Amino acid sequence: MRERRATITDVARQAQVSRATASRVLGGYGYASDAVREKVHRAASQLGYTPSQTARAMRTGRSKLIGFVCTDITDGLFAGALGGICAVAESYGYQVLVFNSMDRLDLEIAGVDALVSQGAEGIIVSPVLVSQSGHLLKLADALPLVCLDRQVEKLPSVVSDDVYAASLAAEKIALKGHARIGFVTSVQVEEPISLTTGGDGLQVQGERRPSVQRARGFVSGLAKAGLAPTEEDFCLVDHRRGDGLDRVTQWFSRNEDVTAVVAGDSYQARIVYEALRNLGVRIPDDISLIVFSDADWPEMVSPALDRISLRARGMGSEAARSLLALLSSGSTSDLVTLDVDYHEGNSLRNLT
């Protein structure tokens, strides 16, 4: 038989104070002497008392809950961002409810609705589709909301400098004397990367999502180095299909003259590394590699991989601060763009 949960009345009886006094101490409001506070907290600890969020919300009109809806909590970016969100939220007395949308718009909508029904005072969202954010725009009229990792027009957004990051990767490889450089990235079929070649060379078009921004940065970085990328230099993979390894392996087989690759996100970082290993291609002797990843594994393999980190924890912290600013003052920055970090490994071969 499950034990009865301790109540505020039990704590008051144990501490030999009134229920109102125990409520003030544990609720963090009103006056109580240090001696009384110590007695109440000691009694609560002895009884294993935990406050009811529902009761607190009914009493104060504040749930002290914020929500986080992300596309894939197993991704190093969102796991790191969650750490930053929780740290900032806890310092302001908030708790965080998390919903994983699994990169599906219907689950994102369901997750947002669930968080609202749970009494979340504000929500941080990594939108599945930036072009289909009407439900978020509507919600933002009634509830503080901040977007993370994807910029949505008319909503406060916290993103990394994806264009600069990919440009940096391309330039670093080009400076090593590589002339044929590939770019492998995940794409969302509903918001694809469009590659067209015209008089001004290769052009990248699409929504303002990370994959598109990084593709633009990659082309820009090669152009600065005097290189002209082609559409065949890109391997675009829908990571939700489950055939990414086969598609990347086939791309490498068709492009054996590629001497360096940028893996443009954490999914493709793992797939590219596995594909090269399966093909018996040596890093960096046969091919040079830079990966986008906020996980630690690229530094733990041999040779350690050159890696671009998006400062995931910092992104989460900044998103939480923006949300709390909305909660306290009703305003925050429209767009916060964070720098990235370059972690040098041993995966670039010098051809000069």
Automatic annotation (TrEMBL):
GO molecular function: DNA-binding transcription factor activity; transcription cis-regulatory region binding
Keyword Transcription: yes
Pfam families hit by this protein: LacI, Peripla_BP_3
UniProt keyword annotations, A-Z: DNA-binding, Transcription, Transcription regulation
Residues spanning the signal sequence: none
Taxonomic superkingdom: Bacteria
Domain HTH lacI-type: 6-60
InterPro entries: HTH_LacI, LacI/GalR-like_sensor, Lambda_DNA-bd_dom_sf, Peripla_BP_I
Protein's name in the database: LacI family transcriptional regulator
The organism's taxonomic lineage, starting at the top: Bacteria, Bacillati, Actinomycetota, Actinomycetes, Micrococcales
